[in-house]
Amino acid sequence: MKLHEVKVLGRERFGDHALLRYRWSGVAHEPGQFVMVRALSSPTLDPFLSRPLFVHDYDGEVVSLLFEVRGRGTARLAREDAGLLVSTPLGRGFVFDGKEPVALVGGGVWVSPLKFLSRALNTSGIAHDIYLEVPATASTAYADWLSKSYPHAVLIPTDGSLNSPKTVLSHLGDFSRYAAICASGPSEMLARVKEVSTVPAQLALRERMACANGSCYGCAVPLWREGARIYTRACIEGPVFGAEEVVDVQKSGD
Ligand SMILES: Cc1cc2nc3c(=O)[nH]c(=O)nc-3n(C[C@H](O)[C@H](O)[C@H](O)COP(=O)(O)OP(=O)(O)OC[C@H]3O[C@@H](n4cnc5c(N)ncnc54)[C@H](O)[C@@H]3O)c2cc1C
Ligand code: FES
């Protein structure tokens, strides 16, 4: 996979989360797509694999990535002052048929792609509401940043327990008032949307990825297609899938 060196415009830190902005003049991004990214200044190529991150926002010139610092790869991305290596936008994101209104539902760091999605819906004049879970485990710095960054969202504090998705989804009221639901949250939240949504829903999955070019099959997800259970590669055909075709939402280390 070809990685492009990009000019970093800024890095911000809020608690365990970081936001990174870079200039991008290549092919346009779509909401729900992701990039493979690594720090340019990693002299030992450690970690060896680039990391997948959703496109948090894109205005035609500047891309931003929002991520939780978890291990070596994300720590380097958050820390280094040097440049970045990023792939072109990858995968398939959210799709729209113009029907409105749309509900955007997210939680934890997985709210990331909803910012760009909201921007795209605004550009297309599609009415939408945003519901974001703020779990008790989130740092104050990240919770403050969320409320500033998503000023029109309904922020829903939860205790972070397994009941949290139920609490979040109760804020939507009757699902049938929405034409569609787009969800990007912890696996329990995605599973709950799949289980209870009475309108078409799209889920942003994030299976572990290695090559992200379709050759390793490490990201295979089971889907229902034409009555048969098949496996497909999340890095090529996803990471966003229709909830009805996802067999089950697998736990992926939230
Ligand atoms: C399509 C896609 C989009 C993603 N977008 C984002 C994003 O916008 N923001 C963000 O913070 N993270 C995102 N992730 C997860 C991110 O890629 C991992 O957190 C990152 O690769 C961890 O790398 P590391 O070297 O810091 O940690 P590692 O040392 O590789 O792992 C540290 C911890 O992170 C967990 N982890 C690794 N990969 C995943 C994963 N795919 N899902 C859940 N847990 C994982 C591991 O279980 C481990 O506990 C995305 C993943 C995918 C597949
Ligand atoms: S990550 Fe290798 S096929 Fe998807």
From TrEMBL:
Family matches, as InterPro entries: Cyt_c3_hydrogenase_gsu, Dihydroorotate_DH_ele_sf, Dihydroorotate_DH_Fe-S-bd, FNR_nucleotide-bd, PyrK_electron_transfer, Riboflavin_synthase-like_b-brl
Domain Dihydroorotate dehydrogenase electron transfer subunit iron-sulphur cluster binding: 207-246
Keyword Repeat: no
Keyword terms: 2Fe-2S, Electron transport, FAD, Flavoprotein, Iron, Iron-sulfur, Metal-binding, Oxidoreductase, Transport
A single GO molecular function term of this UniProt record: 2 iron, 2 sulfur cluster binding
Organism domain of life: Bacteria
Cofactor remark from the record: Binds 1 [2Fe-2S] cluster per subunit. Binds 1 FAD per subunit.
EC number: 1.3.1.14
Protein residues bound to [2Fe-2S] cluster: 211, 216, 219, 235
Keyword Electron transport: yes
Gene Ontology BP annotations: pyrimidine nucleotide biosynthetic process
Positions bound to FAD: 73-74
EC class name: oxidoreductase
Cofactor(s) in the UniProt record: [2Fe-2S] cluster; FAD
Family recorded in the similarity comment: Belongs to the PyrK family.
PANTHER family: DIHYDROOROTATE DEHYDROGENASE B (NAD(+)), ELECTRON TRANSFER SUBUNIT, DIHYDROOROTATE DEHYDROGENASE B (NAD(+)), ELECTRON TRANSFER SUBUNIT-RELATED
Listed name of the protein: Dihydroorotate dehydrogenase (NAD(+)), electron transfer subunit
Natural source organism: uncultured Rubrobacteraceae bacterium
Taxonomic classification: Bacteria, Bacillati, Actinomycetota, Rubrobacteria, Rubrobacterales
